[in-house]
Prior knowledge:
Blueprint: E1 2-11, E2 14-24, E3 29-33, H1 40-46, E4 55-60, E5 63-64, H2 72-78, E6 79-82, H3 94-105, H4 110-123, H5 139-151, E7 157-161, H6 169-184, E8 188-192, H7 196-202, E9 205-210, E10 213-218, H8 220-225, H9 230-239
Parallel strand pairs: 3-8, 3-9, 6-7, 7-8
Antiparallel strand pairs: 1-2, 1-4, 4-5, 9-10
Adenosine-5'-diphosphate binds near residues 11, 16, 37, 39 and 42.
Amino acid sequence: MIKVKNLHKSFGDNEVLTDITAEVDAQEVVCVIGPSGSGKSTFLRCLNRLEEITSGEVLIDEVNIADPKTNIDVVRQDVGMVFQHFNLFPHKSVLDNVMLAPMKLKRDSKEEIRSRCLTLLEKVGLADKADAYPSSLSGGQKQRVAIARALAMNPKVMLFDEPTSALDPELVEDVLAVMKDLANEGMTMVVVTHEMGFAKEVGDRVFFMDEGRMVEEGTPMEVFDETKHERTREFLSKIL
Length: 240
Ligand code: ADP
Ligand code: MG
């Protein structure tokens, strides 16, 4: 579903991603771990062209999104993204936040979109909050709305950038549970996270990044229990 070949990304003359080659299969859940500043967010943002790609290829379902001729709107429909900060529109209701993107697309009728988005709110456990405004929700509820909003475009891939890092600890589990459900339904997911429990339980594979490079990748067991690289071991010893 995702193929990254020799990806380089620079900001000015600062190269922050160096020669990354990686693949994510359809229905696979890949967790990306690594120290702060190692390029995890930039890597994720290159997968839906929130960042221009300096060189290399990023294929989503065989479409090279690095090609400037590729329609960015099509890329964004296929690749949903959930950020650490939820970026909901404060003056719109929960349901309107979720409906916004598909309404802009004008592909389906308003009634169809409304009914689909209500189903998504049900899925994330917030059907009763459809008419509420974001300010009345907890951080965990806001993040679940953000997940529903990303799903409203029927993406082929979902990207999560530290979706639980800004949440109070007691709200983290609800969000992880929604992500786990999504994984069990077969969604292809790339998740930047510090939740090692989630990575072990839900992740099919783990990528460890350091200084803009993909240092190590493997199953959670390989990366956590049979760690090959000293740098990975050092990182894990600090966080586990
Ligand atoms: P991580 O998500 O692993 O913490 P990032 O991808 O956010 O790492 O950042 C990797 C490096 O790229 C950092 O050195 C950061 O300062 C730099 N960087 C990220 N975004 C920008 C930007 N828009 N402009 C310039 N430098 C950036
Ligand atoms: Mg980051």
